[in-house]
């Protein structure tokens, strides 16, 4: 049994409102993480065809702030699997529809979800199939990015 990366692709759109901002008018990290966890879970559920729970999230990189009133786009897709686990890359970008400034990357993270059966026990997930060059490129990029991110974390811990 196999499912494709495209089967898992999920995109959510939010607008940054005052309740999700800090005193500088920028997105609260917790609000962004919540959106990322939801989007990642939807991608994992679409892929597995089962309920999933968040098992872990790697180091989160907050690359740039999101300003009050900006549109937030959260994208997620499955890039690797284990027997019952599903690895999902989640990226966030911001856009200001009132300006001609291009979208900008704001946050990235890798999540691991575990698929559950009706009794709440871990259950096997499909193998990941990448049927197009675009899917293979996304998968390969996610694998490389995760390795690079983990290498950077290890180096910081050694300092």
From TrEMBL:
Keywords associated with the record: Hydrolase
Any coiled-coil regions, as ranges: none
Pfam families for the chain: 4HBT
UniProt EC number: 3.1.2.20
Protein name from the UniProt record: Acyl-CoA thioesterase
InterPro entries given in the database record: Cytosol_ACT (IPR040170), HOTDOG_ACOT (IPR033120), HotDog_dom_sf (IPR029069), Thioestr_dom (IPR006683)
Species, as recorded: Halomarina salina
Domain HotDog ACOT-type as annotated: residue spans: 6-119
Top class in the EC scheme: hydrolase
Gene3D superfamilies named in the record: Hotdog Thioesterase
Molecular function (Gene Ontology), one example: fatty acyl-CoA hydrolase activity
Keyword field contains Glycosyltransferase: no
